[in-house]
What does this fold into?
Amino acid sequence: MIRFLLERPIAVMMSFFALLVFSAIVFRLLPISLLPPIDVPQIVVKVTYPNASPESIEQNVLQDIREGLITLNGLEEMESKAGSEIGTVRLTFDYGTKMELAYIEVNEKIDRLTNSLPKDLPRPEVIRINTSDIPVARVQVIPKADIDPVEVSLLAENVLKKRIEQLPGVSLVDINGKRERIISVEPDEHALAALGMTQKELIDAVQAGNAELPGISVKDGQFRYFLRLATRVDTPEDIESLPVRSPSGAIVPLGRVANARYETQEMLGFHLFGMQEGLVITVHKQAAAKMNELIPELKKSLELFKNDYPQVDFALTQDQSSLLNAAISNLQTSLLFGGVFAFAILFLFIKDFRIPLVMGISLPTSLLISFLVFYFFDISINIISLSGLALGIGMLIDNAIIVLDNITRKRESGLGLFESCVQGANEVMGALISSVLTTLAVFVPLVFLSGISGALFYDQAVAVAAILSVSLLVAFVLLPLLYWLIFRVGTRDVLRGEPSAFLKTLRVYERAFDWIFARRKIALVGFFVLIPLGLALGLLLDTQGLPEIEKPDASLEIDWNEPISAAQNRDRMLGLISDIKDYSQAEADVGVRQFLLFDGDNSIQKSLLYLLFPSEKEKDEQLTLLREKLGKEYPLATFVLGDAPNAFDQLFSSNQPYYELRWKDLSQKKPVPAEKMEPWLESFPAESWEPGPGLQEESSVLFTLLPDRLALYQIPVSEVQEQLSRLFGVYTITDIRRFGEITPIRLRESQERFEDLLRTTRIYASDSTSYALGQFVDYRYADQYKYVTADRGGIYQSAEIDSEDPESLRAEYTRWAADKNLAVEAKGQYFADRENVRQLIGILGISVLLLYFILAAQFESFVQPLIVVFTLPLGITGAFVVLLLCGATLNVMSAIGLVAMLGIMVNDAILKIDTINRLKEEYAAELSLTAKQIREKAIHQAGKIRLKPILMTSITTILALVPIIFSSGLGADLQRPLVFAVIGGLTIGTVTALFFVPLMYWFFDSMVGKREKL
It folds into this structure.
């Protein structure tokens, strides 16, 4: 085939030019994202029910929603959590479920459930979770001094949001910290009492004054006109001029008995930027958009905003594109240093500038054509796919070096230029195809990991498969063609002999080879002893998910566990920020967050603080002081203080605890009361545990109506309930609606203590006699459960257990629960991790089998593939040694480095064995040689032939990675464990390919020879 293609150089070159043109076009169309657009198989139904307790939300809302959604297709888990005024139902589906259809189905079922839910309940929100939901940046909007924050909120909602949404690539703009204007109506209780009125007459007057006549029209001859009441109110002055009629018939303006005015609605949450209150706008990108183009456009818009709206300060924070830029920078570094060092090593070992020129053309060509594969497999350019390309580039350089070296060797042996190109490529074709297939045998099965890990490996596997497949096309078609085209121009003399540097290296190798083969049995035993010792080093390495990277930012997530207001929460956060020194940026979301996509716990008592420091040293110092301050001044608060989560952390973070033991009361469908639960927990078997959400308590006030007094004074229960809701709740009289703007008219809540209000507020009996409201209401302080948690089986309570082996006490948990008539169940990330490990072991086993089958087909032998398999532990040993010496950990990046290193090692071993087999066939024609002589001659000669490509591939790869060790920044921190693993593995791997593979070949071939004699 290669001969056929080389005989048609113009057709081949034009075909490659066409591929390059199409690839360049496709490259401009590919989306550039931080992460692949993965559909996380979760949907959250969020309920907002003002003035409702957790028990009320569970009984009246969440229970019906769970029962209505339990028949969803593909539903795996269902969890609900009811808190004060907020409830959530989290639906987890089987991975692979079409989330677009699931989202539509959930919304349809919610619509059907609407009639069975409370009438005053707003429609539950349905939130679909996607990696695109992670904002790419946050825009801070801070009003300057003496600027009305309500006006700034209107600016952000009506202007800034729409302008940002118009930027190409923006999918959603979300806002937190908005302030809304309302009209408050504050009754004058003394004036009302003097006129014999109640708040009811005042409320009826406002509602009547804002009435509409929808859809009513009158006919006037041949014309028809729609009616509109001209009495509708627009301003507080309009409200105060409304007439109010007393029971005695007296009519007075509403302004005589109440005060109406504009006010800012009471905030349930705030956003802080430094020590200032403001708003934050989160920007989310479209799945097909290019992040590296979106962020510069966003920055340009901010500069325009600063000029257009000088009354507001703007700032861009938490720009997630830094991670993507780091990945792109790493790829560029790999290409640059890989090309430079490959050129230097090739020149050193081959001493002809034209060969590095051939490689310089082939490398970017391979990379660009790989993006064509991205397009057809619908893969975006993201951190995961770029890491796959970075892994493939190492093997791409190796394939190019091997083909070029083999062609040059053929020329030096006396073959013509054309025949050298044909035979040089044909000779290594089978070995290179096998090496690529074995690498894919390791990567591709990882796609079948369940969950997000499998989805992420899909992008990486496609990227590796793309660049390796293209590398074969380039190595067997473009490289020989370029070699032939470049070398046929100019001198036709072939440089005979080797460069002096290589000759010195060859002499050292031959002495070492002779010394080892003179002691081959001892050397072989030594190598086999190294395998278990080296693998045991892995037990000394610490394990973690992502490598420790220099993170100058931190986050504090805190729950004060006290019944404080949002304003008090804000003041506490301002106090914390003021005590922190040397920070570059600080922003906090305090209390209830207004984000549409927020699917966490919305609580007035919770806050999230983000801090950015100039360096990690200042961060560690300030976090230590902050931790001490919180422990000393707020002992009731629970908090998580540490590194701020990046996009990877947000994607992989699980909302479920590590190990959670749940129990349900079999005698009733409600939580076990606290007074009954506390003595039970004293005998709980676990030593170290934390109460789950269903056991957490908060202080509350319980009102109890006195029915005997209500009956005695003939006061309806509904009258008392309505009066309590007006006193202590958010009571909306009506809304003023004008062209999409809604201004609520609300009864102003009194700021007095509730005991005083119960004593001073009057309620009227049927005979118009008034009584103090407190006569009919009793109250007491009590600790109540903060949340009510439930799953598809009903309400449960739980304990989160902190133990290295939490399952060891499973039998004791069961006995503890059985004595109390409780059904017990264990849940948590612990089981998901075990399942992932089990799957990973199974997949790696399949990968080894695939690798063995591919090599058995390549070598036509069941024994020789074992030589390649035995080289893998030695490479892993080298990687472990370097990781241990450099103080690195075993993490995701070092694991990827291990896979990349093993791919290169396998490549060298395959080529060595393939060369020995081919030489054996050639030497077998010499009748004067015995089988032992043929074997030893082939092994020795193959070592010399493959010494140059093995050294070149290893040295170029190692030297290309060395600069990353001495670099700084996020990208270098991420890649450093990968570099340590590759350098350590290749250092040992080179020795393995040079000496261990020949020893193993000699051992197995000798065994086969003895068996044949027998």
Remarks:
- The chain has four domains: 2-32+324-546+834-1013, 36-131, 181-264+703-782, 660-696+786-827.
- The first helix runs from residue 2 to 6.
- The first strand starts at residue 39 and ends at 48.
- Residues 157 and 175 are 8 Å apart (CA to CA).
